[in-house]
Design brief:
This protein has six helices and 22 strands. It has about 375 residues and is mainly beta. β1 and β2 form a beta hairpin. The structure holds the ligand Nc1nc2c(c(=O)[nH]1)N[C@H]1C(S)=C(S)[C@@H](COP(=O)(O)O)O[C@H]1N2 and molybdenum atom.
Length: about 375
C-alpha cells in the first residue's frame, strides 16, 4: 500500500512506499541505464590481467561517493569493547599491514539474466575484478579494543547514506565476531600499491576476502561491536536470497563458484557479436569460488560438447581467481561457446540461474555466440 503524499511530507521521507518495485521482463528502464552509467563493469577482455588495473576494476556504489577530508577522517571502534579506539589515517598507517590478492564479485552480478528481472543495477556478467589490497588486519584492532565476553557481532558503517525501499540509512554491514577475527579481513588503505581511489572507498575500506562485494564496506568510519544481530538495512533487508517477497530468506554471504571467458575475435560495435578467424584459437578466462575454496576444474563447451580446459598453476593467492586456457580449432560457421567451473567443495555452476527476488548470486554458465569465417 502506498501512503498518501501528505504522510510522506509529514514524515520528511519522500520515498516511503517506494518499495513497490515490480519485476520486469524485456527492455531496460531509464533508471537501470542510469545505474549502469554510474557503476561500471570490467570489460571482459580485461580478464586477461591477473590483477585488474585500477581503472578497469568494476564499481558498485549504492548512493553518492561521499566527500571525505583525509586529514579530518577518523575511524572509531566502540560498542561492546573494553577500550574504545579512535584513529586518524596517519595512526592507522602505523599498524602492521598485509597485502592480499582478492577477487571481488558483486552479489548482483548476472541479475539481468534472472527473468523476470528485479529493477536494480542490471549487471550481465561483468561485476567481478581482482586487486591487491593492503591494510591492517581487523583482528589487530579488535585485539586492542578487547571485545567483551558477550559480544557476538561486528558492524561496519560507511560515510555514504541514502534511501532504499523507503528506508533511509547509512551503508552498513556486519560479520559475526569469529568471522571478523579471521586474520584475512583487512582495513584496506591501498589498492594495487596506491592509496584507494575515491570510488573504491578512500581513505579506508573493509575487505572481506571470499565474500560477495557487499561485505567490503567502503568509506569506513565506524566499527561497532554488538551483542545482538545488526539490524542495518543492507544486512537485515537487502542481500538475502528470497524465493518470494514475504519470504524472510537466507543471507547472501560467500561467492558461488563461477567462470568467465574472454570473448574471442573482434566484436560488432553495437551488438557485441563476435567474428573469429578459422584456425587454432586459444580460449582463455578466469574461474573463482568463495571462502578461499580452490577451483578444481574448468570445462569448455563448443556447441554443447564439454571438454576439460587447462588450469593455470595454483598460486599462493587463495582468494584470487585462477586462469584457464582451452585450445579450440575453430571451423567456419556459427558456434556457441560456454565455460563451467567446479570448486574443491564439489559445487559446479548450473546451466540456468536459480531465481530469487533480488537477482542475487547468479552463477549460471556464460554463453558466447561467435561466427567463424
Ligand atoms: N559504503 C559502501 N560500501 C560498499 C558499497 C556501498 O554502496 N557503500 N557497495 C558494496 C558493494 S554491493 C560492492 S559489490 C562493493 C564494490 O566495491 P568496488 O566498487 O570497490 O568494486 O562495495 C561494497 N561496499
Ligand atoms: Mo555488490
Amino acid at each position: 500500500m502506498h501512503p498518501s503524499s501528505a504522510d510522506a511530507a509529514a514524515s520528511g521521507n519522500p520515498f516511503t512506499g517506494s518499495d513497490a518495485r515490480t519485476h520486469v521482463d524485456g527492455g531496460f528502464a531509464l533508471e537501470e541505464v542510469a545505474l549502469a552509467n554510474r557503476n561500471s563493469g570490467i570489460p571482459l577482455e580485461a580478464l586477461r590481467y591477473d590483477v585488474t588495473p585500477p581503472g578497469l576494476h568494476y564499481l558498485l556504489s549504492h548512493f553518492d561517493i561521499p566527500e571525505v577530508d583525509p586529514a579530518g577522517w577518523r575511524l572509531s571502534l566502540g560498542g561492546c569493547v573494553q577500550s574504545e579506539l579512535s584513529l586518524s589515517l596517519a595512526e592507522l598507517l602505523q599498524y602492521p599491514s598485509r597485502t592480499l590478492r582478492v577477487t571481488l564479485e558483486c552479489a548482483g552480478n548476472g541479475r539481468a539474466g534472472m527473468i523476470p528481472r528485479y529493477p536494480s543495477m542490471p549487471w550481465i556478467n561483468e561485476a567481478v575484478s581482482t586487486a591487491e589490497w593492503t591494510g591492517t588486519p581487523l583482528r589487530h584492532l579488535l585485539d586492542l579494543a578487547r571485545p567483551t565476553s558477550w559480544a557476538t557481532e561486528v558492524a561496519f558503517l560507511g560515510l555514504d547514506r541514502g534511501f532504499d525501499r523507503g528506508v533511509e540509512h547509512q551503508y552498513g554491514r556486519s560479520l559475526e565476531l569469529a568471522q571478523a577475527r579471521a586474520g584475512d579481513v583487512l582495513l584496506a588503505h591501498s589498492m594495487n600499491g596506491e592509496p584507494l581511489l575515491p570510488q573504491h572507498g578512500h581513505p579506508c575500506r573493509l575487505i572481506v576476502p571470499g565474500w560477495y562485494g557487499m561485505a567490503s564496506v567502503k568509506w569506513l568510519s565506524r566499527i561497532d561491536v554488538l551483542d545482538r544481530p545488526f539490524d542495518g538495512f543492507q544486512q537485515a533487508v537487502g542481500y538475502r536470497y528470497r524465493s518470494q517477497e514475504d519470504d524472510p530468506g537466507v543471507p547472501v554471504t560467500t561467492m558461488r563458484v563461477r567462470s568467465l571467458m574472454v570473448p574471442p575475435g573482434v566484436p560488432d560495435w553495437y551488438t557485441r557479436r563476435r567474428l573469429v578467424q578459422a584456425g587454432s584459437v586459444v580460449l582463455r578466462g578466469r574461474a573463482w569460488a568463495g571462502a578461499g575454496v580452490p577451483i578444481e576444474a574448468v570445462e569448455v563447451s563448443v556447441d554443447g560438447e564439454w571438454r576439460a580446459a587447462t588450469l593455470a598453476a595454483q598460486t599462493m593467492h587463495r582468494y584470487a581467481w585462477r586462469g584457464w586456457t582451452f585450445p579450440w580449432p575453430a571451423t567456419v560457421g556459427e558456434h556457441r561457446l560456454q565455460c563451467r567451473a567446479r570448486a574443491a567443495d564439489g559445487t559446479v555452476q548450473p546451466m540456468a540461474p536459480e531465481w530469487n527476488t533480488a537477482g542475487m548470486g547468479n552463477n549460471a554458465v556464460q554463453t558466447v555466440q561467435v561466427t567463424v569465417r
